Amino acid sequence: MENYIYFSDGDGADATGDAGCWPASNFIGATCLSTTTTGLYFAGQTGVGDAPDLITLTHADETTTTGHHVQTVAKAMAKLLNAGPHAGGKRLVAVDLTNSVYAEGLTGITGVAITIDS
Amino acid sequence: MARQVNNNTENYLYFAKTGVVVDAASEAVMLPASAYLGCNPTSATNTNFMFEDVVGTATATVVSLTHTSGKNEEVIDAMIEIMNSYNGAGALQVVADGELDTGSITGAATKAGTVFHKAFKGLVTACAAIA
User: Fold this and answer.
1) Using CA atoms, how far apart are residues A22 and A91, in angstroms rounded to an integer?
2) Residue A29 belongs to what domain range?
3) Among residues A7, A56, A102, B53, which is most buried (max CB within 10 A)?
4) In the predicted model, what is the mean pLDDT of residues A77-90?
5) Cβ B56–A41 below 8 Å, yes or no?
6) What is the C-alpha to C-alpha distance for residues B101 and A112, in angstroms, rounded to an integer?
7) ipTM of the assembly?
8) Beta strands, E only, chain A
9) How far off is chain A from B70, nearest CA to CA, in Å?
10) Three-state secondary-structure class, residue B17
11) Alpha-carbon distance A67 to A48, whole Å?
12) CA distance A53 to A5
């Protein structure tokens, strides 16, 4: 079985880039992008040789307090990607801003931007 | 590219550069342990660890760890121990978090100091670069 990780922005899942669902096994990595954004990369979904898909998460600027939010996101994503055994084989919501659903540790996310073939 | 086949658990490795306010790409990264490609010592006090690129390009992400002189093999052994560590499930392993108080981190809930995985037994002193 495989976990599938779902993201959605806040204006409904009804257009390209509004939402996406990736196999956990396609997760490439994460890195901070700015003081208030963290990028998650998955292997591209449009075919062989395509660029990775980028999910940009917006969050508070914590660089002058507890350190960049990327580590909080990393911990939450590691837990979600490894969720199981009872969660195995399901669609797991990481962040769904349309329906205000958040995985544990991702409640601080205020924005989701999905770039296919980044 | 596919990893975590059949939903086997996976360790994820976290690195943050030493001495900088983490606020730009590749200053802090999270990588699957299965993205590890190899390593090589670049000096008596530095070993480079290569991973499949964190942003998906063909060029490897290189993490440079500074350590006690002549302890390259011990640091490599520790990295293998970290990547293979298992406590019932895969987890985020904070390998080298060099983000520290550079003077800009202030307030009640401060983050100060560095964190290096206990497997290094104090040998690693900095995450010198992530490129």
Assistant:
1) 9
2) 4-115
3) A7
4) 80
5) yes
6) 29
7) 0.87
8) 4-8, 19-23, 27-34, 37-42, 53-58, 91-96, 101-102, 111-115
9) 31
10) coil
11) 37
12) 13
Contact flag A43-B22 (C-beta cutoff 8 Å): no
How many Cβ atoms sit within 10 Å of the Cβ of residue A99? 11
What would the pLDDT profile of B6-57 be if each residue is shown by its tens digit? 446 899 999 999 877 778 888 999 999 999 999 999 999 999 999 999 998 8
Find the chain A residues whose C-beta atoms sit closer than 8 A to any C-beta of B.
1-3, 23-35, 39, 41, 43-44, 51-52, 54, 63-68, 70-71, 73-75, 77-79, 81-82, 84, 88-89, 118
Across A78-91, average pLDDT: 79
For the record, the structure tokens of A97 come out as 């801003």
- How many folded domains does chain A comprise? 1
Buried b (16+ CB within 10 A) or exposed e, A52-78: bbbbbbbbeebbbebbbbbbbbbbbbb
Q: How far apart, in whole angstroms, are the C-alpha atoms of residue B122 and residue B16?
A: 17
Q: Is B12 exposed, middle or buried (0-12, 13-18, 19+ CB in 10 A)?
A: buried
Residues in CB range of A108: below 8 A, 6 or more apart: A59, A60, A69, A72
Phi/psi at A34 (5° precision): -155, -175
pTM attached to this predicted model: 0.89
Based on its alpha-carbon atoms, the radius of gyration of chain A, rounded to whole angstroms, reads: 14
Bridge partners for A8 per DSSP: A19, A96
Distance CA B64, CA B85 (A): 21
